[in-house]
Write a structure and sequence with these properties.
By secondary structure, this protein is α/β, with parallel strands linked by helices. It has a single domain, classed as Collagenase (Catalytic Domain) (3-Layer(aba) Sandwich), CATH 3.40.390. Helix content is about 40%, strand content about 15%. Strands 1-2-4-3 form a 4-stranded mixed beta sheet, with helices on both faces. Strand 1, helix 1 and strand 2 form a beta-alpha-beta unit. Helix 1 packs across helix 4 and helix 3 packs across helix 4. The longest helix has 21 residues.
C-alpha cells in the first residue's frame, strides 16, 4: 500500500464576510490547496499543512502576540514540531517568532503534521499589485514561503536576495506556475 500524498487544507478566517463572494473564496481556497499539494510533491515532502487566509487586522494581532511586532505581516508559520534551539518559547508554549520546523520521521501510514500557515490576503493583494503580478500568484508565493519554513528552511530578517530558501521558492513557483506574465489563475 502506498502512503497518501501531502494534505493541504485552506480555509478563510471569515468565510461569509463578503456577501456574494463565498463561492469565489471557496474556489480560490481549493486552487491554493491544489497548488500546496503540488508544491509539496515537487519538494518531495508528504506532510499535512493547514492554511488560514485572513485580513491584516487578524494578522496584526497574531504578529503582535507571537512575534512582538505590532504590525501586520504577509505570512506566518507555526510549526507543529520545532527545533527548540532555533527560538525561545513565548506565551502559552508557542514558539517566539519564526522557527525552523523539524518533522518527525516519516511513517508510511499518513503524512506527518507539519503545522499551520496564516496568510493575510489583503497584504498579498497589495504586494501582488506592487509586483505587477496576479493576486493568486502572490498567495501561492506566500503559501510556499510558509511551507518552506515548516519544512525547516529559514532566511535572514529582513530577507536578502539570493538566499537559498528564496531561490528555491522562486524556482518552485516558476516550475509549477510558469511565467507570471502568462499566468493569471492557479490550476
Amino acid at each position: 500500500m502506498t502512503a497518501p500524498d501531502a494534505i493541504v487544507e485552506v480555509r478563510w478566517a471569515e468565510p461569509g464576510a463578503v456577501a456574494g463572494c463565498a463561492g469565489a473564496r471557496a474556489a480560490l481556497a481549493d486552487r491554493l490547496a491544489r497548488f500546496g499539494r503540488r508544491a509539496l510533491h515537487h519538494l518531495d515532502h508528504r506532510v499535512e499543512v493547514s492554511v488560514l487566509l485572513c485580513d491584516s487586522d487578524l494578522m496584526h494581532t497574531l504578529n503582535a502576540r507571537y512575534r512582538g511586532i505590532a504590525a501586520p505581516t504577509d505570512v506566518l508559520s507555526f510549526a507543529q514540531h520545532h527545533d527548540s534551539r532555533a527560538a525561545g518559547t513565548g506565551a502559552g508554549g508557542w514558539p517566539e517568532g519564526p522557527v525552523r520546523g523539524t518533522l518527525p520521521a516519516q511513517s508510511s501510514a499518513a503524512p506527518a503534521p507539519a503545522g499551520d500557515v496564516v496568510i493575510a490576503a489583503d497584504v498579498a493583494a497589495r504586494q501582488a499589485a506592487a509586483r505587477g503580478e496576479p493576486e493568486e500568484r502572490e498567495l501561492c508565493r506566500l503559501l510556499l514561503h510558509g511551507m518552506l519554513h515548516l519544512l525547516g528552511m529559514d532566511h535572514a530578517d529582513p530577507p536578502r536576495d539570493h538566499e537559498p530558501m528564496l531561490t528555491l521558492q522562486e524556482r518552485t513557483l516558476l516550475r509549477l506556475l510558469g511565467d507570471a506574465a502568462s499566468n493569471h489563475t492557479v490550476g
